[in-house]
């Protein structure tokens, strides 16, 4: 017995790997560029082409960028009706393009916009979707979507054997951006709106850009992060001082966020942000698998914890067992001392 909503598909009719290229304020989101490295790898394994799909207004000048980063072609839909971004409008555009070209795989970066739009696209195309993937592979012509289940104690290998396209997302910074090569050539397909653009159901009344003084977590080279072991929000004042001396930024674990000690946008981990700093200092963080997942790309991890059996030490390059209220002030003092010595040295 078949479901009328889910008509059978002929898998052999679907060819190509797509990456949805998110744009904003005249530039391409870094997370979309990172997904091109994934797309290139999977396209080669499937023996097919890689396309970047761009939907927006006044973005024609960006059309070559996905090609420079590894795409074979770009499908461009540039129209005033696609500004500003509305999930339903952009999502329907991607759906209609997918129905026309029939790609076998669609990758979407797990940004705020991507996470909102991707389920709409999957539901409209009556196919499956796997969110927050950490790796991909190909088996018997199917995309293997690998991600940690909640708890991150193992890896799930998910496939969509009977539906096309196969859709997956990955969070920013999970994958490295491919090298940019302006010598690469490719095809740019400029599409016209051939479908009825839906009413977004909402209207943007006003938009204000919030000025951020510090470097975003995902781009920070030095991060000082606190957890439940700090005992209270006051502990972050000490961490802020340490981060300031190091030229870094502060972050926190989910426990610290749940306690209201630090805002959610500062959360590192499986349900927060994945980071890749040169130095990550974990203070009072036990080292749950969900948190470790978010720092696996850090070059150096230093752990400070009063519990010698804390799991964070198994994932740290250097560990200090002790009370952070005694250790962190000593670190600050030593950093300041070395700065002064450097200033007066000939």
From TrEMBL:
<dbReference type="InterPro" id="IPR033947">
    <property type="entry name" value="ETF_alpha_N"/>
</dbReference>
<dbReference type="InterPro" id="IPR014730">
    <property type="entry name" value="ETF_a/b_N"/>
</dbReference>
<dbReference type="GO" id="GO:0009055">
    <property type="term" value="F:electron transfer activity"/>
</dbReference>
<dbReference type="InterPro" id="IPR014731">
    <property type="entry name" value="ETF_asu_C"/>
</dbReference>
<protein>
    <submittedName>
        <fullName>Electron transfer flavoprotein subunit alpha/FixB family protein</fullName>
    </submittedName>
</protein>
<dbReference type="GO" id="GO:0050660">
    <property type="term" value="F:flavin adenine dinucleotide binding"/>
</dbReference>
<dbReference type="InterPro" id="IPR001308">
    <property type="entry name" value="ETF_a/FixB"/>
</dbReference>
<comment type="similarity">
    <text>Belongs to the ETF alpha-subunit/FixB family.</text>
</comment>
<dbReference type="Pfam" id="PF00766">
    <property type="entry name" value="ETF_alpha"/>
</dbReference>
<feature type="domain" description="Electron transfer flavoprotein alpha/beta-subunit N-terminal">
    <location>
        <begin position="17"/>
        <end position="213"/>
    </location>
</feature>
<dbReference type="GO" id="GO:0033539">
    <property type="term" value="P:fatty acid beta-oxidation using acyl-CoA dehydrogenase"/>
</dbReference>
<dbReference type="InterPro" id="IPR014729">
    <property type="entry name" value="Rossmann-like_a/b/a_fold"/>
</dbReference>
<dbReference type="Pfam" id="PF01012">
    <property type="entry name" value="ETF"/>
</dbReference>
<dbReference type="InterPro" id="IPR029035">
    <property type="entry name" value="DHS-like_NAD/FAD-binding_dom"/>
</dbReference>
